[in-house]
Amino acid sequence: MMIFIATLLVIVIFVWFLYKNDVADLFCSIIVSRSKRFRCRRRAKRIILIRHGESQGNQDSRIYSTVPDHAIGLTDQGREQALHCGEILRKLIGMTETLVCFVSPFRRSKETCELICQAFPKENIVKIREDPRIREQEWGNFQDLATRETTVSERKKIGRFFYRFKNGESGADVYDRVSSFMDSLYREMDNCLMPENNILIVSHGLFMRLFLMRFYRWSVEKFHTLENFDNCGYCILERDDTDGSFTLKTDLYTYPEEKLSHSNSLSKTFNQQSFDEEVNPSIHVDDIVPNGKKCA
User: Fold this and answer.
1) pLDDT of amino acid 176
2) Residue 56 annotated as binding site
3) Is there a catalytic annotation at residue 52?
4) 121: which of 21, 196, 287, 295 lies 20 to 30 Å off by Cα?
5) What is the CA radius of gyration of the chain?
6) Structural domain includes residue 230
7) DSSP string, 167-228
């Protein structure tokens, strides 16, 4: 009995000592820090944003007045572009790493994703998930050819981010969808710790630029400097194992008349941006400087 009381007394004194000297807080801080570092280093190896291949709408924009946007498919050239893109990504990713694919529900994006995935062994593809949040900007059902020039002129004056199509969306609306999708992406990576996994997001040009804007917390002005990606153009964000941040590996192209004169490239500017800054942001980046190269 005396031994039990003595042991209990020692435990109480020990806990009291820890409490008074903040040693418990130190231990908890170390545990949380190591846990956070463990998760960050086991997130996806790469996040790859991919625009769909050439569509029937890219070939002849009049089709938007008769065919629903979501039903527009790829052209023969678009299918070739998707197959070629798959071959390039296979060389980049290799045959041992896995893939998780998120794809827009639009026909052209689904066809692109399917053709890209043909370049990889089926066992390497963990899953393909269709997500409506990464769809194209809503242009208001069918386009009116008679008012198209007026619409284009108004959009240029107001800007891609703020202009709202009649019965459709603004770029700001798509930005909100990006935010919701990004929350799901965080949970996906934190719940499925696969350090050799790659996340492919097959979507649309505007979504890709808004994703980068949201991810790196760029301003609206910086967003407006970015040119669209080519059909089957892609953008790579690669994990840095030292801190779990994601480095922008792809050089972005900007409109010549809006280029800025700073000296740091996008890749260097955001090299130290932590993925966790998205949750508790403390960095606002002002410098976006192109280096004259288009995405592959």
Assistant:
1) 97
2) yes
3) yes
4) 295
5) 24
6) yes
7) TS-BHHHHHHHHHHHHHHHHHHHHHS--TTEEEEEEE-HHHHHHHHHHHHT--HHHHHHBPP
pTM of the full structure: 0.77
**DSSP H or E segment with residue 100:** strand 98-103
For residue 173 the two structure tokens come to 């609306």
Q: How high is the pLDDT of residue 127?
A: 94
Q: How far apart are CA 114 and CA 128, in angstroms?
A: 9
The domain in which residue 130 lies consists of: 44-278
Lowest-pLDDT range of 70-74, 207-211, 261-265, 280-284: 280-284
User: Has 51 been labeled as part of a binding site?
Assistant: yes
**Residue 115 belongs to a domain with what CATH number?**
3.40.50.1240
Where residue 41 falls among pLDDT bands split at 50, 70, 90? Answer: low
Residue 18, domain member (yes or no) = no
Q: Based on the structure, what is the number of domains in the chain?
A: 1
Question: CA nearest 124: which of 156, 94, 146, 160?
Answer: 94
Distance of CA 243 to the CA centre of its chain: 19
Q: Would you say 57 is a known binding-site residue? A: yes
78 is in an annotated binding site: no
| Structural tokens at position 82 | 């998707």
174, 179, 181, 187 alpha-carbon torsion, rounded to 10° = 180
Residue reference for tokens 């996008």: 266
Answer yes or no: is pLDDT of 257 > 70.
no
**Of 70, 80, 114, 136, catalytic:** 136
CA dist 105 and 130 (Å) reads: 6
Given pLDDT bands bounded at 50, 70 and 90, which one contains residue 278?
very low
Catalytic site residue from 52, 111, 188, 224: 52
* 287 occurs within a structural domain: no
What pLDDT score does 35 carry? 54
188 domain residue, yes or no: yes
Going by pLDDT thresholds of 50, 70 and 90, the confidence category of residue 140 is confident
The pair of three-digit structure tokens given for residue 282, joined into one six-digit string: 């403390």
